[in-house]
Amino acid sequence: MRLSAILLLTALPFAANAAGSDDSNPPTPTETTTECKEGLVWDEKTKACVAPEDARLDNDTRFKAVRELAYAGQPEAALRVLAAMTEGETDRVLTYKGFAHRKAGRIEEGMAYYNAALTQNPDNLLARSYMGQGLVEMGEMDLARLQRDEIRARGGEATWAFASLDRALRSGQTWSY
């Protein structure tokens, strides 16, 4: 599988109107990362740290924990929580699988997940930003610029997704926030 061909396909124009995900702002730390042992999730109802597979947790609670863990530098814990989600391989799940794998050093695997997320939802600006940042890490600046241009074309120039990728392109450094 040629990574360049896959990435170019995701940059092709698609007919779409949405500006992307509402989840592009950095998560606020909660007890999940300040109190719980790695891999556990804070359950607001019980005021306790619980296993991500705990049936009392809903997918939105799990997803918030995934984001928080991924941003806090705990990619393996984020993957454990993602595995406990019951919504299937949605584009938000695929985006964060990509992010967690990339942050764990498995860039090619992360890129495959970003590509799958964008196949489902070409307007997933966060997946485009994370993919672009992975491309910056790989030294593929032209392909990263294509993702930034796609974010702009989809109405996302005023988003964190655009700003973060643009900053990575200008500095050569990627960012989690």
Automatic annotation (TrEMBL):
PROSITE patterns: TPR. TPR repeats lie at residues 91-124. Coiled coil: none annotated. InterPro entries: TPR-like_helical_dom_sf, TPR_rpt. Keywords: Signal, TPR repeat. It comes from the Bacteria. This is Tetratricopeptide repeat protein.
